[in-house]
Amino acid sequence: MFYQSSINSSQLNLNFWVRLLSRLGGAAIFFTLFSVLSAQAMDLRVAIRKAVSSVKVGSSTPALVKDGGGKTLGSLGELVPAIAGTNGRGVSLNGWTASQIIIEPSGDGVVWIGDRWYRGRTRLLRQGSGVTAVNQVNLEQYLYSVVGSEAVPAWPLEALKSQAVAARTFAIYKSTAESNRYYDLDTTTATQVYKGMENEYVSTVEAVNATQGQVMTYNGKVILAAFHASSGGHTENVEDVWTSPLPYLRAVVDYDQSAPVFQWNKGFSVGEMSSLLGGVGTVRAMIPEQTTPLGRIVTMRVVGSRGTKNIRGTKMREVLKLKSTLFTVSESGGSFIIEGRGSGHGLGLSQWGAYGLAQQGTPYTQILAHYYQNANLTQLDR
């Protein structure tokens, strides 16, 4: 059972938003209301919409509208929708124009961006010829949704705590090492999945609060806390999958045997495979050219009627829509059968492995120590 609490419509007079959600294919707006003082003052800039022609914005409470320098331009009413766009001079909203526009809700208000609610405030800025809508949100509050989006809220609390620490560490690493002038993170698996208040649950809030300010470090620095769904029995050394070795992303036994993606298979006709891979005519054979020590495909040699080419395993995964690069290929009855294990890159924390260990009563501190070898659990300054 997933735990969630909803705001009664009489509390927020959500008629407009319910109608809007209905047009977008959903009629329920879920919230989890917790007024928790974060241990960290760090805010993240999360891109919700990137370089779009327009975006719907609003606030659950009366909100101030300011420019990038903090000058008040005006206000938005409670639950009054607005459309942000661009013009020759920058960003436009309800007749106001500035290089950046900020929407700051009053009280405990939350903001509407696109098609859902978010904590924090909204920053609108011009990117290329479009408008980018950024959610500026407190790190801990951001994690309420990330843990609910990346993990299963009904999982044991220790597994959710592991995810909370990994996600916090990953967010800080990305925002300090790889952010740009527009935003630190987005909402996809390229950084971390973030769906706003819609994916906050009692269990995920509890996991975040119970680990408030805790991160994984190595030699006093926040680590690249990679995580994935399931490794298929054993995680990888980072240098075998990506590039440079890291002392904390080492291959370890996984405990993900209960994962629904632990084993999987997918079939393709010769015609389908030839069309998808392209450039070699009719595919006749697929031979692993280079693999990791644990069997992930680094490059595959594809032999066809009109030539041969090597394809990277990551590219094959993308083109064939496979769950991982840990797979073998066989031919049977004029078809290619792919048998694989796991889901994701196989580095760092295995989410289903964390679930398996938590089911055995393993505390989150030991789960993290297992998947992030040589790293330390560190409390950031409060």
TrEMBL record:
Where the record annotates domain Sporulation stage II protein D amidase enhancer LytB N-terminal, the positions are 128-218
Which keywords describe this protein according to UniProt? Answer: Membrane, Transmembrane, Transmembrane helix
GO biological process terms, alphabetically, are: sporulation resulting in formation of a cellular spore
Q: Pfam families under this entry? A: SpoIID
Cross-referenced InterPro entries: Bact_Sporulation_Assoc, SpoIID/LytB, SpoIID/LytB_N
Q: Does the keyword Protein biosynthesis apply?
A: no
TM ranges = 20-39
Is Transmembrane found in the keyword set? yes
Where does it sit, as one GO cellular component term?
Answer: outer membrane-bounded periplasmic space
> Which PANTHER family does this entry report, sorted A to Z?
AMIDASE ENHANCER (PTHR30032:SF4), N-ACETYLMURAMOYL-L-ALANINE AMIDASE-RELATED (PTHR30032)
- What is the name attached to this protein's record? SpoIID/LytB domain-containing protein
Q: Give the organism the record lists.
A: Woronichinia naegeliana WA131
